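pasting for the record
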Amino acid sequence: MKKNEYFKEIEKIYKEKKSDFKKRLQEFRDTWNKGTNKDIHLELSFCILTPQSKALNAWQAITNLKENNLIFTGSAEEMVEYLNIVRFKNNKSKFLVALREQMTKNGEIVTKDFFSSIPTTFEKREWIVKNIKGMSYKEAGHFLRNVGFGSEVAILDRHILRNLVKLEVIDEIPKTLSPKIYLEIEKKMKEYCDFVKIPMDEMDLLLWYKEAGVIFK
């Protein structure tokens, strides 16, 4: 394990933007601490829309659904009209309805209450992967990070994997990202983050910023 030339490049960015990363992560924690069941449900719904789509587009789609009173009441057929800016809109509209049905009790959304009842971050993630349609380890980790539980889990999308290769944490981007491979790479990323003393959730924002030039979610 070493700090190569590429790390020195991103370390410079980290030192410049560190306070911004910490502020954003605090905002994520505030989403959980101050948010309602519906607020947390929106974050989970957002992560269903992100696969092979831009995060900004996925959040815009969620915003549009919310403004048109569809995310909590609309059918898949009604919602799909607002998902043109994300890929696989037909499947994802069905996933959103299925999620809403899972997270409704006695006619009310209970998403935050439900996840509060699951003790650990890793148990929350396992439940999501096994029970929510359209969500893998990556999307589950994304949701957990966005509500303040990101210090232990990685969000291994292609931009993170590409940067992990540049940092020499992994040799190459795997052709397929099975659960076993995902967890192996996550472990390597965590060990590297501990080595360079950058928390994993801050590292994710740092590498995302390096790629996109913005700190989003």
